[in-house]
Give the backbone structure.
Amino acid sequence: MKNKSYLVFWEMVLILASILMFRSAWLLLDGIEWMGRPAGLGVSLMVGVSVGAVALAALSRASSK
């Protein structure tokens, strides 16, 4: 039982840390003028979708083994 609570604690820490990292990345990208333009948003969207698709494919491959 102690092992599960230990894992849950560190998962919560990871979630909170990811919120802070996301917020920091968001504000950092807001500071770049080019990222506010349609071209910057389009590139950002394409990169995000591409990285997300690769990550989902890797997870799918790993879970099917």
Summary: The chain has a mean pLDDT of 91. Helices lie at 2-30, 38-64. The radius of gyration is 17 Å. The longest helix spans residues 2-30.
